[in-house]
Design goal:
This protein is mostly helical and 119 residues long. The protein is built from seven helices and no strands. The longest helix has 25 residues, at 93-117.
């Protein structure tokens, strides 16, 4: 699997991220580092504890990472959740969070498949 194929499989924009980072090596490095990010765990924990200020920060962090790496599908769902959390628990937060969790899992699965293809 190529990095471009990985990006296609997760609904991300390969051309945009290459245009931004200018190097496939850098894109690969930061894409693989995404697997180590703990923001989703913090988001889940914060939502469980009804700490919506911390949940907002975690969702906002995910949003920034997705913007930088052009993870468009995950970015789209996370942006909606981030805005719903901006002033505390907005309507539909639970439903929106479930969509983010699903998109995040798809993203991580695609990146892991790419990582495995590297041998």
């Amino acid at each position: 699997m190529t990095l471009k194929e990985c990006y296609e499989s997760i609904g991300a924009n390969y051309e945009e991220v290459i245009g931004r980072l200018r190097s496939e090596r850098l894109v690969q490095k930061f894409t693989l580092k995404f697997l180590d990010d703990k923001s989703l765990e913090l988001l889940k924990k914060s939502l469980e504890e009804e700490n919506y200020e911390e949940a907002f920060r975690a969702a906002h962090t995910i949003k920034g990472i997705c913007q930088n790496l052009s993870f468009d599908k995950l970015l789209a769902s996370d942006m909606v959740l981030t805005e719903a959390l901006r002033d505390g628990k907005g309507p539909d937060v639970d439903r929106l969070a479930e969509q983010v969790f699903a998109d995040y899992e798809q993203t991580v699965s695609g990146i892991r498949a790419f990582q495995e293809s590297l041998g």
